[in-house]
Amino acid sequence: MHILMTGASGGIGSAIRKRLEDEGFVVTNIGRNSAELECDLADSAKLARKVSLWLEKNSVDGLINCAGFGIFDPHETIKPERLARLVAVNLTAPMILTRECLKKFKNQGSGHIINIASIEATRHAKFSAAYTATKSGLRDFSLALFEEVRQSNIKVTCINPDMTLTPFFEPLRFAPSSQDGAHLDPQTIAESVLFVLKNPAVVCDITLRSPRFGIVKKAQK
Fold this sequence. Notes:
- With 221 residues, the chain is α/β, with parallel strands linked by helices.
- It has helices spanning 11-22, 44-57, 80-108, 129-149, 186-198, and strands at 2-6, 26-31, 37-38, 62-65, 111-116, 154-161, 174-176, 205-208, 215-217.
- The strands form two sheets. The chain has a seven-stranded parallel sheet with strand order 3-2-1-4-5-6-8, sandwiched between helices.
C-alpha cells in the first residue's frame, strides 16, 4: 500500500512512518523540508496544485494527516498571523489534502483517510481555545466525512492521542511528565494506525489516554 502523509519527519509522524515501512508500506511525506514532496502546508493554493499534479502520476491507497503544532497562550496575546498559520496547518491542509485524495479514491473504489487530532478535540482546556478549535474541527470533519463517503468504500478515521512524549512540546511552556504511565509514546499511536489500516471494519474514532496524568511546567526565560 502507498500512503501519502504529512508530519512524517518527526515525533508521532516519524514513528508512524517507521512502523508502516516495517510492514511493507510505501510512505510519501509532504512538508516544507521533505525530500519527497516539498510544500509549505500553510500555502493552501500551492499545496492543492502540487498534490493534484503528484496524484496524476502516482498511485495512493491512504492519506494520513499528522502534521500540526500547538499554541497554548491567552487568546488575546496570540498574533493574528500565528492564528492563521495554526488553522492552515492543523485544519485547512488536511481538508485540502482530503479533497484531492478523495477524487482518486472514488475513481479506484477504495481508500483510507486517517487524521491525527488530539485529546483536546474531546475536552475544553484553559489556554487551548485556538488549538482545540483546530483539533475538534478536524475530528468533526472526519466523523461527518465518513457519513458522506462510506457508500464509496472509503474509510475515515480520527485518532485523538493524549499528551505524547515528542518534540511537539519543545517551544511550549509545559510538557508531559516523563514518569512511567504519565504520557503516551509515539510508538503507541503508530501501532494504533497499523491496527486501523488492517482492520476490516471502519474504526471511526479512537481516543488514546495515558494511564496517569502528569505535566511539567518549564521555567520561564
